[in-house]
## 1
Amino acid sequence: MVKKDDTRIVGFLCNWCSYAGADLAGTSKFKIPSCFTPIRVMCSSRVDPVLVETAFLEGADGVLITGCHPGDCHYDEGNYYARRRFAVLKKVIESLGLESDRLRLSWISASEGQRFADVVNEFTEKIKKMGPNPLRKKSSL
Ligand code: FES
């Protein structure tokens, strides 16, 4: 019997660029893995580290944060805050016993539907090769 792939990828997408890029990917019919769960946030800077930690503690195998390209954030400097926070978050998830590559930050504009699909597919493949989140085995999920 073939075991069902239950890889779980959570994506935090900024409303103004990346979510629109995801929308374009959808209307362009680019393939996105069904294991990808998008969560819309107003800006990449609104991704509280607790949300990322909770996603991993609840069993996400990978977390992708996306936002506007540097210089294009609709709140001027939000993605710069996100980039700094991301560097710290990588260390935090390592302290939880996870590989830091399970967390990725990418800049994707509203016109980059193909890029959105490529980033999600590439990240998903990488996470599948890494295997399940080791914390998931310890949780009840
Ligand atoms: S509004 Fe997109 S990263 Fe800030």
## 2
Amino acid sequence: MTGGGEKEQAQAVRTMFGAIAAKYDFLNHLLSGNIDRSWRARSVREVEKRINTARPRILDVGCGTGDLALSFSRAGPVVGCDFCQPMLAIGREKIARARVPHPVDLLEGDALCLPFSDAVFDAVVSAFVLRNLANMEKGLREMGRVLRPGGTLGILDFAMPKMLVMGTLYRSLGFTRVEFHHFTGGIAVLHVASKER
Ligand SMILES: C[S@@+](CC[C@H](N)C(=O)[O-])C[C@H]1O[C@@H](n2cnc3c(N)ncnc32)[C@H](O)[C@@H]1O
């Protein structure tokens, strides 16, 4: 159940991304000088190192316009999930134009209450979403719930002071082999962890 404050925060985030959806990709690549593309590519490589199943099922939480989901489609079929329809609509157009090695499906869903059964994904990934969640711990718990035991979690975000205590949070949520990979002098950070078997 999402609390009152959480509901308002979630609504504000959804409205904000709905308003900027049409310009999101342009701004993203412009403001980062296109470095965000290399961060996503490196994230795929790091997560792939831990995936030990053929054709892994991958979930991209807060997929937005689908860039991370598209990058991960080289590894296996991807489901992207986001609660902002205008972002998803742009993502679906991009996917329809792209040549994808594996299918990519985008659907509406809340990261704090993911519309999936337990332990159905081999990898759960997310980029630039954690900071937007009304309840970060609840979001990570949900990602862990839908990940199969032994599966891989990959979270990419801008570095923030909270990261200093994230290792403890991951371990108290039942993740092991927690690693932090710093990109571009520490501007962005990728968290990789495995769900306990
Ligand atoms: C900064 S964008 C990142 C989009 C994409 N992952 C990327 O790398 O470009 C953040 C996305 O998270 C989504 N988001 C934020 N909170 C969410 C939640 N509780 N459930 C689902 N999506 C959420 C927003 O709608 C937005 O599309």
